[in-house]
Amino acid sequence: MIWVGVDLLLGNNNSKGLPDDLNRLGSEFGATAQANFEEGPEAMQESDLRTGAHLGERVAKIAAQIKAGRRDVA
């Protein structure tokens, strides 16, 4: 197994951070999302969905590198 992390700095966690920043919840281990309890998953932040898409692209890229026989994947 190869662990593929998000590779993004923490997003909306300082005075210059914005809710639209990727990785706004600051996960280092995978994509996370948050919606208000009464609104349900339909109310997820667009930036959380984009963070998930970024991670998916990263996993696909690394999988292609491994399939090609590269040992220096990043």
Characterise this structure.
By secondary structure, the protein is mostly helical. The protein has a domain at 1-7 and 43-74. The chain has one helix at residues 46-67. The model has no long low-confidence stretch (mean pLDDT 85).
SSE map:
Blueprint: H1 46-67
Give a concise summary.
This protein is mainly α and 74 residues long. The protein has one helix spanning 46-67.
What would you call the structural class? mainly alpha
Strand content: under 5%
Helix content: 25-40%
Shape: elongated
Oligomer: single chain
Say how many strands there are: 0
Rounded mean pLDDT is: 85
Distance between the termini: 15 Å
Largest sheet composition: none
Alpha carbon gyration radius: 14 Å
From N to C, what is the helix and strand string?
H
- Number of distinct helices: 1
Which segments are poorly predicted (pLDDT under 50) over 5 or more consecutive residues? none
Q: Can you tag this structure with a few keywords?
A:
single chain, 74 residues, mainly alpha, 1 helix, 30% helix, elongated
